[in-house]
Each structure stands twice: as C-alpha cells, then as structure tokens.
Description:
Helices cover 37% and strands 21% of the residues. It is an alpha+beta fold.
Amino acid sequence: MTIVGIRGFRDILPGDVERWQFIENTTRKILEDFGFKEIKIPVLEKTELFARSIGEDTDIVEKEMYSFLDRKGESLTLRPEATASVLRAYIEHNLYKEEPIKKLYSIGPMFRYERPQKGRYRQFYQINAEVLGVEDPKIDVELMVMLLHLLKRLGVRRTDLSVNSLGCSRCRPQFRESLRSFFETRLDILCPDCKRRLKTNPLRIMDCKMETCTKVASDAPSILDFLCSECLTHFDAVKEMLRTFEIPYVVNPHMVRGLDYYTRTAFEISSSELGAQNAIAGGGRYDNLLKELGGPDIPGIGFAIGIERLALLLEEREGLFRFPKVFVAALGSEAQNDAFRLTTALRLKGIWVEIDYGDKSLKSQMRRANKLKADFALIMGEQELKSGSAILRDMKTGHQEEIDLGKGMDELIEKIG
Ligand code: HAM
C-alpha cells in the first residue's frame, strides 16, 4: 500500500510554487524597504511559551496545538504562530540592547489542529512581522499601510480592513466584568467551553466559532465604551492617520482576535473573494507581552498574513512563470556529447538551458522544447557537427539561422539576448 501525506498537510507542487515564490520575493522587498530584518526561528518550542503568551483559554492552546513529550519527557509544541517565538528570541539574545527599535519578519510554516477546508490547513505558512519598542500610534498605521501596500503589489484587489481597540490592563478589567454579567444572564445558550470561559476569560467567548455563541456575542457590550483616556487617544490617533492616508476601514468593536496577548489596536484584513476562511491577515499591539514573558517592559505590535489564502487570491495571476531560454536538441552520440558540453557551459554563464538525456528523435526533442516553452531551440545534427555550427530556431516566429560555434559561444549568447 502506498503512503499518503497527513490530513491538512499539503505539498506545494511546481506550477503552484511559483505563486509562493512571487509572494515571498515581493514580501521581502517591501518589508525590507520599511526597515524590517529577517529572523529565522525554530518550528519547535517549549509548550509553556505558547500557553503563557497565546493564553490557556484560547482555542489555539486548548484544542489546536501539536504538542508531545520528547524523549526526556519535556512537553514541546510545533509553533501555532510566530509572535511568541520571535519575542522569546528577542529576550534570549538581548536584542533590545542593540537598538531601541527592532523590526523583525519571518516567513515559515505554522501548525494548528483545525478542521481542514479550503483556505484552512493544519500546516499553513505565515508571513509574520513584529515591531518592538514603539509606543507611538504612527507605527500601528505604518504597519497597516505596509500590509495594504504589499497586498496591492501582489495583485490582491478587494480587501476590507477592520480595526478595534482592546484597551489596556487598566481599562480591560471593567470590560471583562461587564461581559461576564452579560453572558451570565445567557448562560444556557453558551456552549460547554464558553460556560467554562465565562469564569476564566469571558473575552474568549467573543471569538467562539459555535453558531449559538456567535449569535449571543453579537449583542455583547462594546469594549469601546470602556476604554480609558490614554487608550481612547491612541485609538483616535490611529483612525485619524488612517483617514489621512485615505485608507478605508471599519471599526468592529466585537473583534477581539483569537489570542490573549493583544492590547489596544487590533486589526484584520479580509477578502470577500475567499469564502468561509476570509481572513488574509490579522495583528495588533501586545504592549505587556514582553514583560509577561520575563523580558523588559517594551511595547510591541505585529501582524501575520496567511500565505495559502494569498495564493488562492492570486490563482488567476499570469506572468509568474519563467521559461528556459534555450532547448538544445542533438542528433547522434557525438553531437549529443557536444550539446551536453555546450549546455553545461551556458548554464555556468547563468543562462537557463534545457536538454534531453538519451537518444531521442529530433521530433520528440522539439516537442519537449515546445512543451517547456523555451524561447529558442538550438539544433545540433551530424551535418552541423562537421562544420562546427548549429541551427538556432526562434520558437515563437519559427525563424531559423545558422550559428558558427567554432569561435566560441559569443555569437550564440548575443543572438539569444
Ligand atoms: P492569526 O489571526 O491567528 O494571527 O493568523 C494570521 C493569519 O494566518 C490569518 O489571518 C490567516 O490568514 C492565517 N491562518 C491562520 N490559521 C490558518 C490555517 N489553519 N490555515 C491557513 N491559514 C491560516 C496570528 O497568528 C498572530 N501571531 C499575528 C500577529 C503577529 N499578531 C501580532 N503579531
């Protein structure tokens, strides 16, 4: 019996991978233009890191983590997100001592045991960006501007930005109490998980995926009525700057994001073209998280984009594929040896050249040149071998001309551009 891959874990095959390369290359360029540096972090961390940062009562920690004991009995977890790991690395390597502001990005796979469907997988890839050390609301807006610019450059047209403020450790407790009172009177409608969350963390009821809970939550009190004056000023400044940059947004007071670490600004970008899993990106501030993880009292903000969902939006996009410059077709063993030498020499000069291996007919080799969409075919037969030449055929126009290979490759390189 053949072995197949794990449910929710996908292979990204050639033909699809070009979209991913385009996404990654465009992302690197834009993020680096905005001052971000790449950080590579491990896929495996101590389970405690995620439990403490994402929060014990979140769906991610409660139900979705791939956790296991290693050979020494330590609980480890395949990262369900990158923020916790980036902050762990930031603290562990004292990065805050190097510069007051750090902008870090990473691209890689995350793992969540969710029910797979279109746009939702158990291994999925994120582009993750974090800024540490800036309290000013300008950075909140800078991140949203950068994110929207990136999406536009990738060719994602229709996006919706939602923003909210989740308050701070001073004003959130009052909101939490108000939520608790609200849900207490509707206890019988809540799912068993939310009944429990009512005691431990009522905010989590707001992002429960059960239909009945979602319905009750839509009438819940708004956090915006509880913000302290500092949080209000911060949120007003964010909205004001978004208007200055002419960025359309909606305020969604019920958006709490599925992770516990957020404070103040939270945002999400969705696309109506995506279907049920319509969130492309999400992020926000986490001003207490570094301190809570044992680091310095430094604010932070970041976001993550789901690459699978981006790739779905780019499905129709053309112009992402490269094609070989030349296909070298040779007839007869001597010509095939010459062709192999020439192919290798051209490749070492940085030219994409394809060749067949084995003794194939000219017709079959030309069929392959066509299939690979090569710009040119270079035909080397017995006849050409004697005169040290080859025939260069422009595959688009069908125009053919003889090239003298006796004096080296210069003429050929000039002709193929
Ligand atoms: P998140 O909202 O959990 O945030 O995930 C961000 C994005 O990852 C989502 O908007 C979605 O596009 C993608 N995503 C999440 N789960 C899946 C899945 N199962 N399959 C496919 N795509 C998925 C975070 O992860 C935070 N760490 C973002 C952040 C960074 N906040 C501050 N800094």
